[in-house]
Amino acid sequence: MMKWNQLVGTYRIASNSTKFCRNDNLTHKDLMEELNRALNSDYRRVIKSDSFRRLQDKTQVFPLERNDFVRTRLTHSLEVAMHARDLLSEVIKGLRAKGIEEMELNSSYRLLETAALIHDIGNPPFGHFGEEAIRIWFAKNGEQQPEWETLTEQQKEDFLQFEGNAQTIRLLTKLHTDNGASQDGMKLTASTMDAVIKYTANSLQIEKGQLLTKKVGYFYSERTEFKRIKYATGTADRRHPLVFLLEAADDLAYTFSDIEDAYNYGLYSYRKLKSFIDEETKTNTFLEKKDSEAAAIQNFLRTTQQSVYTSASKAFVDNYDEILEGSFEQEIISEECDAVRCFNALKKFAYQHIFQTKEILDQEVLGFHIINRLLDEFVPVVLKYEKEPMNKYEERLFNNIPESAKQLYRKEAEDCREDEQNYYRLKMAVDFICNMTDGYAKKLHDTLFN
């Protein structure tokens, strides 16, 4: 059984961190002060980071879109933070009604907010298609690199199964440098970082049908940091309980906002949505038009969202013991009710009538072409770094990679065999691209190759 006095603590993941908070050794007052200080510090570190600011120019659904009503990764993350707070509030009320009071859980609002702000921070440009572009490039071109055969199977799969969630852990523990002031990433608490670890599998352990292992949770390069996080929180190979709330908040945010943004963008009509929802839910009680069609959609989204809130928080409370045991293996938005059926119908509608529209697909193709060309050019160059001479063109190309990336490579490759150094050279290229915003990726591509 996981314990809240270990799940929510102040221990920071950094090589020079020696403080391991033993909450049971503190008075209630001292504990609250320690937790508040640590978790507020996490929040400030994230808000002030350049990685967080880059989210304002990273795609949520519409790549390279300049209309102000369309969400970016930044506005999406802020909405997830709002939803996460509301869900936690409902959960605390529900647990209190059952006579369960956990002071660390009551102090977790800031922790969840911070987790929401960083949950997409490692994603590459151009949304989830950016992740797919990286996977496709390595599937097509990895074996063409002579160094590919020097990698272990897990190292190869890290690129073939590339996942933004795992890149987030890499960014938080290594890539963030605070303008050169940090050697250990953001140095966030283990509790905050564990609250964004949705998957516990490495790239050789993927089982598509299982909640915790359907995607890569951490790369080979962060195996030590991952183990330290899980050891500090006591979660081992289980999910931190707050991940269930964060994932539900994420689902709520993107599902309803995608529908809203797409309507404002003109990708579907009120009649199309109404007909689809009625067919999927076998009822005509949703989307009642009393005023304008736009108002009807807004009212529908708001009321349905609130109903799903209630269902998700109730599911967490009802399955509280199983969640703390680590035996609960489904999402908390799963209740058999009209609101959740409607929620699932909206997801299906978004896939069929938003993500498959020509406007979205054309932009994804553009993003794919940009990432593909950047990898075409930069991968052969980074594989020469500190191994063989570069020609003048390669030197000028490599000059675009920041000094911090070269320093991280030297740190990671310092005690490695030559063949393992190739893995970290490839990491340098992928890290470089993942740190780009949509706009910077396009600008760099156009500057260098057009």
Automatic annotation (TrEMBL):
The keyword Glycoprotein does not apply. Keywords: Hydrolase. Residues 73-255 form the HD domain. The keyword Cell cycle does not apply. This is Deoxyguanosinetriphosphate triphosphohydrolase. It comes from Enterococcus larvae.
